[in-house]
């Protein structure tokens, strides 16, 4: 599966184009059949730990696995026989010699490691089965589990290897002499030559590498192939011995476990994130694909994949998703407004992002963002719980926002202000996509939801009134007679506030309450001793500061005008004094207040359930 909109696919195509003209290196000819490969063939594939595949170039071109089989057969031996038994046959030290050197550890008589031919032959001798055919079937079954499909061998390459593999025969008979082989060397070598002749393509190898990245679970089939402890051991040996005499420089330049093969393949494993496979037949002097090495260098650098950069798991990057129908804004609205918004709330989705943002985690949430955006919805991306974003994540987020902004969706990024660790992302978004009408940066998620709701209401016949709402149309006074409303009007004081004016301050005495006659106000509290946090807003016709009617204590929040506001102010003491001449006013107001508070509590409970 590939995405129609993906900065990663675009990146791979650009990388492929930039390296296609590199004609350095020579195709391997010591196995005659390999010398027939097209030196211009070049494919790149990335497979993530949750099964997403990205490709560029000749990813369907078949080639033989060759030495890239060595990590997987080593994993088989560990899984089947255990570390203690395997260590008796092969060590884990780099050799400093060519991959096909006829040399053993002079102390133990073992091959130095399973990534050179001697070690791989010793490991292949551990494949179980009573007959040669059963051992072959067992080996192919195991490789098929890694690839997620049945594999076969290239018979012509096998015959070519069998006919010319005299150096490997010398290695096998030497190990027979030292006791490292306990089966007929010709039988072991036939299976080894077949192992190296398994036919694969870039997708197969990327999925196999991703299976190692996913702690031994195939990301396509979901089947566990290898235990995590054995995956660790395989990756460790790949890190130190997987790239022949270039292993040390590879660790410095690229910094991820890898294995190459003389057919022109290279695989690289980024634990917890992805597997990379590159195919290009021309080799350098030590037997590694020239384009393969350069592609992996570039991907590692551009996506910050070096193992010592320090990364976390990608699976939990999306904390949760919900719609505005499930969790509306905290703005106090009338019943008819809420009914209208309930019908349209699913047009807005919210994604809460958490943890560190790097290539793997950013790719996962951006893929989901793209899926939602295809439906033409507004999407809020909430970074409140994001820890940081590295340069790769910033680049991918900006590229995705640019692409999606050309469609029908609107992307809103929230909770970036005031977070030092996310300032690079905020600045990049402002600079690169801030001018797009379909990409917005809003300080907090609730405000972003509220703005969306306002836009929905503005599209309907129930748009917000641009008039002063009379007392008779205000819910908290519902049920009062005309005479009582007239009396109430006589004790109401009307105030006007400019946008940004503070109407109530946290800690003030609560002696009056307000009703918004026109406009809206925001409610905020102090957190961490100094920082303010907006917790909601109050719109036309709704009361605020109404707790003065119940306890008369201290104000618990600041209230600030969002826009030019007109409010009615009522003195609680004056309302109580009216009880003799109009005994129904205060009980009616208190009854309506209980209903309003109950309504808010019910909505809060609905939100809590939606967010669980």
What attributes characterize this protein structure?
5-stranded antiparallel sheet; Beta-lactamase; Jelly Rolls; alpha+beta; Transcription Regulator spoIIAA; 3 domains; 612 residues; 5-stranded mixed sheet
Tell me what you see in this structure.
This protein is α+β, with helices and mostly antiparallel strands and 612 residues long. The chain has three domains: 7-309, Beta-lactamase (3-Layer(aba) Sandwich); 318-458, Transcription Regulator spoIIAA, CATH 3.30.750.24; 471-611, Sandwich (Jelly Rolls). The chain has 20 helices and 22 strands. Helix 15 (391-404) packs parallel to helix 16 (423-432).
What is the CATH homologous superfamily assignment of the largest domain? Answer: DD-peptidase/beta-lactamase superfamily
The major beta sheet can be summarized as: 5 strands, antiparallel
In the sheet with the most strands, the strands line up as 2-1-8-7-6
Structural Rg: 34 Å
| Total strands | 22
Counted up, domains total: 3
Helix content range of the residues, please? Answer: 25-40%
Q: Low-confidence segments, ≥5 residues, pLDDT <50?
A: none
Question: How would you briefly describe this protein structure?
Answer:
The chain has 20 helices and 22 strands. With about 600 residues, the chain is an alpha+beta fold.
Protein topology:
Layout: H1 7-20, E1 43-48, E2 53-57, E3 63-64, H2 70-81, H3 83-89, H4 117-124, H5 132-147, E4 152-153, H6 155-164, H7 166-178, H8 185-196, E5 198-200, H9 202-213, H10 228-241, H11 247-253, E6 258-260, E7 265-270, E8 274-279, H12 290-302, E9 318-323, E10 331-332, H13 335-344, E11 348-357, H14 359-373, E12 378-389, H15 391-404, E13 410-414, H16 423-432, E14 439-442, H17 445-458, H18 482-491, E15 493-497, E16 502-504, E17 512-518, E18 521-527, E19 531-538, E20 543-544, E21 558-561, E22 565-571, H19 572-577, H20 585-611
Parallel strand pairs: 10-19, 11-12, 12-13, 13-14
Antiparallel strand pairs: 1-2, 1-8, 3-5, 4-5, 6-7, 7-8, 9-11, 15-22, 16-21, 17-20, 17-22, 18-19, 18-21
